[in-house]
Design brief:
Layout (H helix, E strand, L loop, with lengths): L16 E3 L9 E6 L9 H15 L8 E4 L3 H13 L3 E6 L4 H9 L3 E5 L4 H16 L2 E2 L6 H18 L7 E4 L5 H13 L4 E7 L4 H4 L33 H8 L5 E5 L1 H15 L5 H16 L5 E6 L21 H8 L27 H11 L6 E5 L4 H13 L4 E4 L10 H13 L6 E4 L2 E4 L1 H10 L1 H8 L24
Parallel strand pairs: 2-10, 3-4, 3-6, 4-5, 7-8, 7-10, 8-9, 11-12
Antiparallel strand pairs: 1-2, 11-13, 13-14
Helix pairs in contact: 1-2, 1-5, 5-6, 6-8, 9-10, 12-14
C-alpha cells in the first residue's frame, strides 16, 4: 500500500533508467539514468543528504550550526534542500561565472550565496569556503574529499543500476566527474559485482585533467593545494573544477576506470539539444557531454551491447548559458508563418472589436466609507508611503521591486485582492482614487499624503532626486540602485490593458 513521505528527503534516489530510441546506434541498447528526477533535479541530492547524515551521526555538525560549502550550483541546491528540511543555516561560495539561475534557486531555498572572482576558478571558491568555515566555526562539507559523498552512490546509485540490469549484462557505464563521488561510489560496486562492465569517464577535451596523467598537488587533508596545470575553462558547468578531486583520484588509484574519453564542448551542447528534441529528455550541458561519450562508445561497441549513461541534472539550470544561445524568446519567422496560415488571433492583424454592450455599466458609487478609507490611508503617519496597486499588475510589481531595492517601507493596498473583493470594496476605493487624482490608472503612490503619481512618475522622481527629498520629509532614508535605471525593473512582458 502506498503512503505519504515524511519529508522531501525521502524522495531522493530511485531515479529511472530510460531506453534511448531515436538517437541510439543500430544494434546497441543505449540507456540513460535521469538524475533530474531527484527532488532538486540533480544527482547531487544524493550526496547532499549523505554528507549531512554522516556529519550529524559523527557529531561534526551540531544542531543549528551553519553549513558551508563551495559549489558550482547543483551541490549547493541539494544542500539547500537538505538544510531547509533539517533546520541548518547554509552559506555557499560560488565563482561568479556560474549561471544566474543557480544563484536565484539557492537564495529562493534560503541559502546565502557568496560570489568569488571568476579568474580564481574553483580553487578560489573552495578557499573562500575554507576561510569562512575556519573564521566562523561553520561546518565545511568538503564534498571533494568526503567519503560520505561516494558512499551515497555505493548505497543507492549502484544498487539501482544493478537492480535494473539483474537479468542482462551491462557492458559499459559512462559518466563524467565533478566531485568524483558518483564515479568512485558507483564504479567500485560495478567492478565488484558486474566485473564485465567497462567504466568510461568523460572530461572536457580542452581540459584533460585525468587524461594528462599529471597528479594533483594536495595538502595533507587531501584538498587541492593548487590548480591543475592542465585545466582550461570549458563549457561543461559542474564538471571538472580546476583540480582533480580526491574522490576522482581515488577511482584512478583503485583502477576503477577503464577509459578516459575527451569530449568537445560544442558536441556536448549539441547532444543536450538532440536529447531534448529527439528523445524528450531535458538535460544540462554536462548530461549532453556524458551522452556524447555514450554515443561514441555505442558506435564502437559490439552488436548487442548495453550502454548506460549518467545524466546529472536538468536543462533548466542553463538558461543563461551557451546551451540556450539562439533559442528565440519571440516568434521565429517559421512560427510567424504558421500563425499567418489561418486568419484569426494574429499579431499582424488588429483583433476585431468586441461588440458594444447595449448599456454601459453604472460607474462605481463614491461612498463615504471609501472616502474615509482613502483619507486614513494617505494620512497615516505610521505608514507614510502608500501604494495603491493590483496584484497582477507588472507596473505595480516594478514599483514593489524599486521600493525593495531602495529599502523603502510602504503600505500596499491591493485593490483586487481577496480582502478587497467583497461588495466591490476595492472598486469603491479605486473610484475615490480616480476622482481625487483625475486618472483611473494603477499603480498610484502617495508619500506623506502627497500624490507622487504612477510607475513612470515614480521612476522619474527617483532619477531627478525628488523622491529622495519627499522621503526625507517623512523620515525615511533612501538607498540606491547601484547605477541601474529603474525602468530596467519592468518585466519584458506586459499585460494588455
Amino acid at each position: 500500500m502506498s503512503t505519504y513521505k515524511n519529508s522531501i528527503l525521502e524522495t531522493i534516489g530511485n531515479t529511472p533508467i530510460i531506453k534511448i530510441n531515436r538517437l541510439a546506434p543500430e544494434g546497441v541498447d543505449l540507456f540513460v539514468k535521469a538524475e533530474s528526477f531527484n527532488p532538486m533535479s540533480s544527482v547531487k541530492d544524493r550526496m547532499a543528504l549523505s554528507t549531512i547524515d554522516a556529519a550529524e551521526k559523527s557529531g561534526a555538525l551540531k544542531p543549528g550550526q551553519t553549513v558551508i560549502e563551495a559549489t558550482s550550483g547543483n551541490t549547493g541546491i541539494g544542500l539547500a534542500m537538505v538544510c531547509a528540511a533539517r533546520g541548518y543555516p547554509l552559506v555557499l561560495t560560488m565563482a561568479e561565472s556560474f549561471s544566474i539561475e543557480r544563484r536565484k534557486i539557492l537564495r529562493f531555498l534560503g541559502a546565502k550565496v557568496v560570489l568569488t572572482p571568476a579568474e580564481l576558478k574553483g580553487s578560489g571558491m573552495l578557499a573562500k569556503a575554507v576561510e569562512l568555515a575556519a573564521s566562523h566555526g561553520w561546518f565545511l562539507v568538503r564534498q571533494f574529499e568526503n567519503e560520505a559523498n561516494a558512499d551515497a552512490h555505493t548505497r543507492t546509485t549502484a544498487r539501482e543500476i544493478l537492480d535494473v540490469f539483474d537479468d542482462r549484462p551491462l557492458d559499459y557505464f559512462v559518466t563524467g566527474y565533478g566531485t568524483g563521488g558518483t564515479l568512485k561510489g558507483t564504479a567500485r560496486v560495478l567492478k565488484a559485482e558486474s566485473p564485465g562492465t567497462r567504466i568510461v569517464v568523460c572530461e572536457p577535451d580542452n581540459s584533460p585533467l585525468l587524461g594528462s596523467g599529471i597528479p594533483q598537488e594536495r595538502d595533507n587533508d587531501g584538498s587541492p593545494s593548487a590548480s591543475h596545470p592542465s585545466f582550461r575553462p570549458h563549457l561543461m558547468q559542474g564538471w571538472t573544477p580546476d583540480f582533480i578531486p580526491k574522490l576522482a583520484e581515488d577511482a584512478v588509484a583503485l583502477q576503477l576506470i577503464d577509459e578516459v574519453m575527451p569530449i568537445d564542448g560544442n558536441e556536448a551542447l549539441d547532444m543536450s539539444r538532440q536529447l531534448a528534441q529527439k528523445e524528450g529528455i531535458f538535460s544540462g550541458t554536462s548530461g549532453g557531454a556524458t551522452f556524447a561519450g555514450a554515443i561514441s562508445v555505442a558506435k564502437n561497441a559490439p552488436a548487442g551491447s548495453s550502454v548506460l549513461c549518467m545524466l546529472p541534472d536538468t536543462g533548466e539550470r542553463y538558461l543563461s548559458t551557451p546551451l540556450f544561445e539562439g533559442i528565440a524568446e519571440q516568434m521565429t519567422e517559421e512560427e510567424l508563418e504558421i500563425s499567418r496560415s489561418t486568419p484569426g488571433y494574429r499579431f499582424d492583424k488588429k483583433a476585431p472589436s468586441a461588440p458594444k454592450p447595449e448599456e454601459k455599466p453604472a460607474p462605481p458609487v463614491l461612498t463615504a466609507e471609501a472616502n474615509a478609507f482613502f483619507e486614513e490611508a494617505t494620512n497615516d503617519t505610521d505608514n507614510p508611503v502608500v501604494l495603491f496597486a493590483l496584484e497582477w499588475c507588472e507596473f505595480c510589481w516594478a514599483i514593489r521591486k524599486l521600493f525593495s531595492h531602495l529599502g523603502i517601507p510602504y503600505r500596499p493596498i491591493d485593490l483586487d485582492s481577496v480582502a478587497y473583493q467583497e461588495n466591490d470594496w476595492g472598486g469603491q476605493i479605486r473610484a475615490v482614487l480616480a476622482e481625487r487624482i483625475g486618472a483611473p490608472t494603477i499603480p498610484q503612490i502617495f508619500i506623506g499624503g502627497d500624490h507622487v503619481g504612477g510607475a513612470t512618475d515614480t521612476f522619474e522622481s527617483y532619477k531627478s532626486g525628488e523622491l529622495e527629498k519627499r522621503l526625507e520629509k517623512v523620515g525615511i532614508e533612501i538607498g540606491d540602485l547601484g547605477g541601474k535605471d529603474p525602468y530596467e525593473l519592468l518585466p519584458n512582458w506586459l499585460h494588455k490593458r
